[in-house]
Specification:
mainly beta; 7-stranded mixed β-sheet; 5-stranded mixed β-sheet; 3 helices; 92 strands; extended; disordered N terminus; disordered C terminus; Ig-like_dom_sf; glycoprotein; FN3_dom; Ig_sub
């Protein structure tokens, strides 16, 4: 088997440099794992997974290569082995996968394939009865049949599905399958059947029933516990496994089970007690869980104990493995691998799947492999194997032995090297060669000797082949060549060294202060050798500035020897350290400056109301950032539900300077909820306001504001109506706010008072039949709240209600003026006892919803009512009115409005212009039967400048002449006139300035636009618009 693998291996070409080696040996992606399958599924397949990179694996069973070509039941899929028509005898065993390619071979971990089964119980007849006395303990044996795979046990009592329930008196061992009853009771009499389950095959078999019978010779007396179920003296347990220890005792009374460690160490929280403490379960077993455990069974008759030791073992686990390695021919290899395990694992080494034997150049000690003076045949895949009796693990790595002539293809000298005068130059000679090459340096054609001490030891040849020149001068400028040689060949690389003058910074940025929002340029300019390539960069507070991302504020300006930085619209966060970095081919310089950005102060914080009265509030706050300029003062602002936004408030002291963090706000209104905030200022300006303080209400107080605009009058007979402007809520100073109304007849002394408890009321009516009409009263209104009465307003004179006029107007006449207007005339009333303030005309047609009225104050006796409907009968009446309302109406008079004017405009309008005279002609408008007859036409020549307006012309003809100014534009419209009013207007005619030109065509047109004639006139051209 190993020979067949060896024949597939070729001698690969060795790369020239260990840094560039690509390791292509096989690598495991997936290795096989143990598998257990039911034996009673002949059509089932078994898949043992195995997958490697760059390899098609081989399989072995129990160390023998599987010949897949002649095996119809086994085949591979992607490296995995698939077995069909499973056969227990042929397929059970240990499988291993071998991955190989031209670089070598590796073995996978081992995996076992087992088959699970469960036979039937041999005898299906009823088992012998078990006779016990009541109170005695009993064990019913299960005796499971032959099997493979993990089993679980249960017992049926009498018949399915009545299973025995475990408790402190009954226990089913999952180790033996037996049923233990610590103390038999009469209810336990019956038939017991053992149920065995295979967890892999999921098969279930039942034993024959075992009768449990009570003896008739009396009840068993009490006796001390007898432990029937206990764990072995030694319990081997694997790392991270779950360990279950069983302990159960027979006894009367029923014993109690307890557990402890003989070392006295308490159980960790992960340890669980189950089945009335009959099972101790230790999950995820670790080394510290090993030791002696004791089970104690106890009742009042005595106690008994059982002990056993858990011994810890662990499969090998890697602590250190080797890695892929490439070494030059004749070098030495040393690999070491380390593994942990219990017992301690042993080590062996494989090369391409074969055992490595320690002899000659090859030495093996514990987990270390060393090979001296490597040759090409040592290349291959190596595996370190760690093994103890509980497991075996493999670690793989590839060894490549390299042999090649020198090459500078990956690390040649730069064709042109630049160095600053006075600096140090290092020229590296790093050929790729296996074994490493011997190198020498040439300056031009002159070989530089390793022992040379020319130029006061400025030139040094280091052991690794590097050439170092210190304090270089222009004399060092030359071509330098490194020559490398080993037994496989020779190679060289050459570079030309030129010496440049040092670069100088000619203009540097300086520390400065600037105000937020301004822009500046930080200079950074140099003088340098023209042979150098120069680049500029800027860092801000240690971070390189990204000019694309931060283009809103930062921009590089200047030419090839200038790296000035422009900062636009500077913000507070732009303050800090700016560093200009100048990079050339030979050196790097930098210069820096501190930029201090000043701005308005930051917002103060923690504004609190320390003390509050009815008109003052004492505030405190903490300062915000001064943003580069000391805080010079603070402004206090307040807000209430009654203000629009924040308002500045008065304080004590009047000016709050920047050193103060407290102030007293004065002039507040009582019983108002206030919020306060603080704004800081400095020489730059006002900052952002602080967060608002908690809402705080001032204390209440007696009202200090009287109602305003006290007046009144009007109302109905025997009433005194008093009105005032309510006091705003923010001036009411407390709860329980209301008004006190005081009044008295003019000339008297005693006041009559009334109280209104509704703050929003602004009117009071006093009714008394003894009040004479239109009698003067002194009136004043005051305010009050729960704290007391406030001030009264100044005294106002208010007249009591007067009576309506008692007489209706006479000699009422009407005239229909047009389709929408009626004129009403009446005779003024003679002197009457009541006041007359004016007249009111009421009108309506036959529909009740068209009632309207027009009032005219004073002694006028004529009114025009407009906006009426055409050709409609209206009923009109007139009444005098005063503050008490209208008096009696005159007798209604009916009048019919005129028919509506024609709704058609004059058509076929023609016009001519001679000099400044415009002549217009149009067709007459004929009224329909439902329209008023045409009585004439209204011609409106309107100047577009007010100072040249021409009077409107009314004519009963269908032609008219107009004299127009030569210096104006005109808009002319014609309407038909009738008794019903003006008809629809014609399309407007636009006449432009006559002085615009000396000779234009005059066009004779009609409306709509239809040119009739064209005459040659010595006049400007006019157009219709």
């Amino acid at each position: 088997y190993t020979l067949s693998v060896r024949k597939l291996l070729l001698s690969p070409l060795s790369p020239a440099c260990t840094e560039d080696v690509i390791f292509q040996g096989p690598r495991w992606r997936t290795e096989p794992s143990d598998l257990i399958l039911p034996i009673n599924s002949p059509d089932q397949e078994a898949t043992i997974t195995c997958e490697a990179e760059g390899s098609s694996p081989l399989w072995s069973l129990n160390g023998t290569l599987i010949d897949l070509g002649n095996d119809y039941r086994r085949h591979m899929s992607g490296g995995s082995l698939i077995i069909s028509n499973l056969d227990k005898d042929q397929d059970t065993g240990v499988y291993q996968c071998t991955a190989f390619n031209t670089w070598g071979a590796i073995l996978s971990r081992r995996a076992s394939l087992q088959f699970a089964y469960l036979d039937n119980f041999k005898s299906q007849t009823v088992r012998s009865a078990v006779n016990v006395r009541e109170g005695q303990g009993v064990v019913l044996l299960c005796g499971p049949p032959a099997h493979s795979g993990e089993l679980t046990f249960a017992w049926i009592f009498n018949e399915y599905p009545y299973f025995v329930q475990q408790d402190s008196r009954r226990f089913i061992s999952q180790e033996t399958g037996s049923l233990y009853i610590a103390k038999v009771e009469s209810s336990d009499v019956g038939n017991y059947t053992c149920v065995v389950n295979n967890t892999v095959t999921r098969e279930k078999v039942l034993s024959s029933p075992t009768p449990l019978v009570l003896r008739s010779d009396g009840v068993m007396g009490e006796y001390e516990p007898k432990i029937e179920v206990h764990f072995p003296d030694s319990v081997p347990a694997a790392k991270e496994s779950v360990v279950k220890l069983e302990c159960f005792a027979l006894g009367n009374p029923v014993p109690e089970i307890s557990w402890r460690r003989t070392s006295g160490i308490p159980f960790p929280s992960k340890v669980k007690m189950k089945n009335s403490n009959a099972v101790l379960e230790i999950p995820n077993l670790q080394q510290e869980d090993a030791g002696t455990y004791e089970c104690m069974a106890e009742n009042r008759r005595g106690k008994n104990a059982a002990r056993g030791r858990i011994s810890f073992h662990a499969k090998p686990h890697w602590l250190q493995t080797m890695t892929d390695t490439a070494l030059s021919i004749e070098e030495n290899l040393f690999w070491e691998c380390k593994a942990t395990g219990k017992p301690k694992p042993s080590y062996s080494w494989l090369k391409n799947g074969d055992q490595v034997v320690a002899e000659g150049r090859v030495q093996i000690e514990n987990g270390a492999l060393s090979i001296a003076a490597l040759n090409l045949s040592d290349s291959g895949m190596y595996q370190c194997v760690a093994e103890n009796k509980h497991g075996i693990i493999y670690s793989s790595a590839q060894l490549m032995v390299l042999a090649s002539p020198p090459s500078f293809s990956k690390s040649p000298l730069r064709a042109l090297l630049k160095a600053r005068s006075g600096s140090e130059v290092t020229l590296e000679c790093k050929p790729q060669a296996s074994p490493p090459a011997i190198s020498l340096w040439k300056k031009g054609n002159e070989i530089l000797q390793r022992t040379e001490s020319s130029a006061s030891l400025r030139i040094t040849l280091l052991p690794n082949g590097t050439l170092k020149i210190t304090n270089v001068t222009r004399r060092d400028a030359a071509s330098y060549t490194c020559v490398a040689k080993n037994q496989f060949g020779t190679a060289s690389t050459t570079g030309r060294l030129i010496i440049t003058e040092p670069t100088r910074i000619t203009m540097r940025p300086t520390n400065m202060e600037i105000i937020v929002g301004e822009s500046i340029v930080l200079p950074c300019q140099i003088a340098c050798d023209p042979a150098l390539d120069v680049s500029f960069s800027w860092a801000f507070n240690g971070q390189l500035i990204d000019f694309q991302r931060d283009s809103d504020h930062f921009e590089r300006v200047g030419g090839s020897i200038s790296g000035d930085l422009m900062i636009r619209n500077i913000q507070l966060n732009h303050g800090g350290k700016y560093v200009c970095v100048i990079d050339t081919d030979v050196e790097s310089l930098s210069t820096s400056a501190i930029l201090v950005v000043k701005g308005p102060p930051g917002p103060p914080d923690k504004v609190a109301v320390e003390e509050i009265t009815d008109s003052t509030a004492q505030l405190s706050w903490t300062p915000g950032r001064d943003n580069g300029s000391p805080i010079t003062g603070y402004i206090i602002q307040a807000r209430t539900p009654f203000t629009v936004g924040w308002q500045a408030v008065d304080t004590v002291p009047e000016v709050v300077n920047g050193n103060m963090l407290t102030a007293t706000v004065v002039g507040l209104n009582a019983w108002v909820e206030y919020e306060f905030r603080v704004v800081a200022r400095n020489t730059v300006g006002l900052g952002e306001p602080s967060p608002a303080s908690t809402k705080t209400r001032t204390e209440d107080a007696i009202p200090d504001t009287a109602p305003t605009d006290v007046g009144g009058g009007g109302g109905t007979k025997s009433e005194l109506v008093i009105t005032w402007e309510p006091v705003p809520e923010e001036l009411q100073n407390g709860e329980g706010f209301g008004y006190i109304i005081a009044f008295r007849p003019v000339g008297t002394v005693t006041w009559t008072r009334a109280v209104i408890s509704t703050p929003g009321v602004a009117r009071y009516v006093f009714r008394n039949d003894t009040i004479p009409p239109f009698s003067p009263f002194d009136v004043k209104v005051g305010a009050y709240n729960n704290r007391g009465e406030g001030p009264f307003s100044s005294i106002a004179t208010v007249y009591s209600a007067e009576e309506v006029p008692s007489v209706a107007p006479k000699r009422v006449r009407t005239r229909s003026v047009s389709a929408v207007q009626i004129e009403v005339i009446w005779e003024a009333l003679p002197a009457i006892p009541e006041r007359v303030l004016g007249y009111e005309v009421r009108y309506n047609d036959t529909k009740p919803d068209t009632v309207g009225k027009v009032r005219i104050s004073g002694n006028y006796t004529l009114v025009n009512i407009t906006g009426l409907k055409a050709n409609t009968v209206y009923y009109l009446s007139v009444a005098a009115f005063n503050t008490a309302g209208p008096g009696p109406q005159s007798a209604p008079i009916n009048t019919t409005t005129k028919k509506p004017p024609p709704d058609r405009a004059p058509l076929n309008i023609q016009w001519t212009m001679i000099g400044s005279t415009l002549t217009l002609h149009w067709d007459p408008v004929v009224a329909m039967e439902t329209e008023s007859k045409v009585t004439g036409y209204l011609v409106g020549p309107n100047s577009l400048h007010r100072y040249n307006d021409i009077n409107t012309i009314l004519t009963n003809k269908t032609t008219v002449e107009l004299s127009l100014s030569a210096n104006d534009n005109y808009l002319i419209q014609i309407k038909a006139m009738s008794e019903g009013g003006e008809g629809a207007g014609s399309e407007p005619i636009h006449i432009h300035k006559l002085s615009d030109a000396a000779a234009y065509k005059a066009v004779l047109c009609s409306i709509p636009l239809l040119c009739k004639t064209v005459r040659r006139l010595s006049l400007p051209f006019s157009s219709l618009m």
